[in-house]
Design a protein that fits this description.
The chain is 77% helix and 4% strand. By secondary structure, it is mainly α. Keywords: Amino-acid transport, Cell membrane, Membrane, Transmembrane, Transmembrane helix, Transport. Pfam families: BPD_transp_1.
């Protein structure tokens, strides 16, 4: 359908004729974001615990990791992990491995600070009560501290995952077939860049908006009572 608007004739039909490419790109985006989350969440928790360690050396290592990845541009890290890191370890990385590792490690650095803030927000009396009951550190974290901390972390947690989902678009720089890379192909084939990237923008908006509704429900459902 061609619709004139402010002197420009919009034609989304040309874009939708190539919907298979966009759907393939959307799958690639979800796959990449999912793998990065699998890396980032447990890594963030692990680094947060290292950061809270009373051993200065271990805490210092965690600080170096978080500062290095939080201050580095994502696109630079993607190039580095795709071109330089394989030379250092002697292993060839495909684009999916390089980008998911990059985004996972960088998001893990941010998640470490989210977990650390959530854990430190729990009153010391909780730790003392668990210790008085003879509970070990691991048991205390699992059953007492983390359930409360995670409920406090939900809004910031979602913000970081949103940034991760949007950062997947940077994978196009190494030709990983996510939705922006596939949109570039559709734009070249149809000569309709405005319509193509409008569809991509709507894709990101729809996904993030729907997830934000779920997060707001979870935030209300699991809110910590005062």
């Amino acid at each position: 359908m061609v619709t004139p608007f402010m002197g420009y004739e919009w034609d989304f039909a040309a874009v939708f004729r190539h919907r298979e490419l966009l759907l393939e790109g959307a799958k690639g985006t979800f796959r990449l974001a999912g793998m990065a989350m699998v890396i980032a969440i447990p890594l963030g928790l692990f680094v947060a615990l290292l950061r809270l360690s009373r051993l200065p050396v271990i805490s210092w290592i965690a600080v170096v990791y978080t500062d290095m990845f939080r201050t580095s541009p994502s696109i630079v890290l993607i190039y580095w992990f795709f071109f330089a890191f394989p030379l250092l370890v002697g292993v060839d990385f495909d684009t999916f491995t390089a980008v998911s590792l990059t985004l996972g490690l960088q998001t893990g650095a941010y998640m470490a600070e989210v977990f650390r803030g959530g854990i430190q927000s729990i009153r010391p009396g909780q730790w003392q009560a668990a210790k008085a009951l003879g509970m070990g550190l691991g048991t205390t974290l699992r059953y007492i501290i983390l359930p409360q901390a995670i409920r406090r972390m939900i809004p910031v947690f979602f913000t970081r995952l949103t940034e991760l989902f949007k950062a997947t678009s940077l994978a196009a720089v190494v030709s990983y077939p996510e939705i922006v890379q596939m949109a570039s192909r559709v734009s070249s084939d149809t000569f309709r860049p405005i319509e193509t990237y409008t569809v991509v923008a709507l894709f990101f908006f729809t996904v993030i908006f729907c997830v934000s509704r779920l997060v707001r429900y979870a935030e209300r459902r699991f809110a910590v009572p005062e």
